[in-house]
Every structure is written in structure tokens, then in C-alpha cells.
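Quick one, C-alpha cells below. Sequence please?
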């Protein structure tokens, strides 16, 4: 088992390196995450690769797209039985938000440096509020959407994917009522969006929904 640190890079090289050193956490591997050109990349990479495994990952500067890429890394490492931390000591704004979203969805621990006059005084663990609990029926809906390209053309198609076709009108109406209820809840949570197209309602995962799907898919 390894302890892995995900480190979004800003411009303050010394703070990044000191935050890792002063965190008190073991580290065997690090992902250096950049969403824009970072003047620190070469310095931090060279300093760390003398001691640990280092991988550089370039992500979008879009918050949700970056969160999805970060969650893919977290999921991979957790599936391998590794411990994961996110270091937000010098993360650019978009990566700080993406890191917080990723931590909340995946329950990954976060730490960051407390600085004064450009120096690290201490390193603290951040507590992230737990994500709202989502029931098994809603999780099954998210999985079905993700496994079908992130969207379906109608509620009927979603029912067919999840429960199969039925000629029993009473059963179908019960299925549709239950599906509509769960979809409304997912839309209120910002995990899906719907759009009327003629007689049908297209249903698709939002970027946040796609991020959530990463952690629940096997």
C-alpha cells in the first residue's frame, strides 16, 4: 500500500515543497496537477522525484472537467488500496475548487499550508462537509446514464434500460411515476438536467453528475 499525494501547482515552489515536508504524512507517490503553465513544475518535480514516484497530469481549467480528471486518479489509487491526500497549499483558484469537489465526492482527505510572509508556519487538515446521501435507486439511475453515454432520449428509454420493456400498463405507470420522482430529486441536486424535445424529455448527466459517477462505477 502506498500513500499518494495529489498536488495542484501554483507559483510558490517553496511553499509547495515545505507543505509536503511539514505535513507529517508519509508519501510514496505524487501527482503534480497543472491546469495552466506553472513556473514551479520543473523545480517541484525535480525535488520530489529524487525520493518518490512523480507523475505530471495536465487538466482543463474548467472546474468540473478538472474535478473529473482528479476523481479518476483518486478512484484508480483507491482501487489499488492506496491512501490518498490532496494538497491545496498553493492551488490556483479553479484547481482549489476542483480539489474540494473531488474530496467531497470521494471522501479524500485534504491538507494545506498556513503561511505568513511567504513562509509556511504550519500545515492543517481541512474538514470537508459530507456529500448528501444518495439512495440506491438514484445511484442506479446515475450508473445507467453514465453507462449509456451520459444521456438518454426519454424517460421511457431509461425505464427500458433499467427494468426492461413491459406491456402491463399498470406496471408501466408505476415505473414511470417512480422514475420521475427520482429524476426530480437528482435534478434538484444538480446531478442531471432535462430538456423537452417534442413529446419526449431528454435526460443527461451534468458535469457534477459525471464527476459523481466516477466514484460509484465499478
Amino acid at each position: 500500500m502506498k500513500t499518494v499525494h495529489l498536488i495542484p501547482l501554483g507559483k510558490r515552489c517553496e511553499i509547495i515543497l515545505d507543505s509536503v515536508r511539514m505535513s507529517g504524512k508519509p508519501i510514496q507517490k505524487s501527482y503534480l496537477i497543472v491546469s495552466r503553465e506553472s513556473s514551479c513544475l520543473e523545480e517541484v518535480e525535480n525535488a520530489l522525484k529524487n525520493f518518490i514516484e512523480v507523475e505530471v497530469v495536465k487538466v482543463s481549467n474548467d472546474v468540473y472537467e478538472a474535478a473529473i480528471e482528479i476523481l479518476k486518479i483518486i478512484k484508480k489509487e483507491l482501487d489499488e488500496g492506496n491512501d490518498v491526500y490532496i494538497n491545496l497549499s498553493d492551488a490556483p483558484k479553479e484547481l482549489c475548487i476542483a480539489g474540494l469537489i473531488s474530496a467531497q465526492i470521494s471522501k479524500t482527505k485534504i491538507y494545506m499550508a498556513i503561511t505568513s510572509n511567504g513562509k509556511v508556519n504550519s500545515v492543517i487538515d481541512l474538514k470537508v462537509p459530507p456529500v448528501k446521501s444518495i439512495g440506491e435507486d438514484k445511484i442506479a439511475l446515475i450508473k445507467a446514464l453514465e453507462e449509456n453515454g451520459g444521456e438518454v432520449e426519454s424517460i421511457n428509454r431509461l425505464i427500458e434500460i433499467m427494468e426492461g420493456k413491459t406491456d402491463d400498463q399498470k406496471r408501466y405507470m408505476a415505473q414511470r411515476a417512480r422514475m420521475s420522482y427520482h429524476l426530480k430529486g437528482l435534478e434538484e441536486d444538480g446531478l442531471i438536467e432535462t430538456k423537452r424535445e417534442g413529446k419526449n424529455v431528454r435526460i443527461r448527466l451534468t458535469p457534477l453528475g459525471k464527476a459523481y459517477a466516477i466514484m460509484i462505477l465499478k
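The domain at 3-126 is CATH 3.40.50.10770 (Rossmann fold). The radius of gyration is 21 Å.
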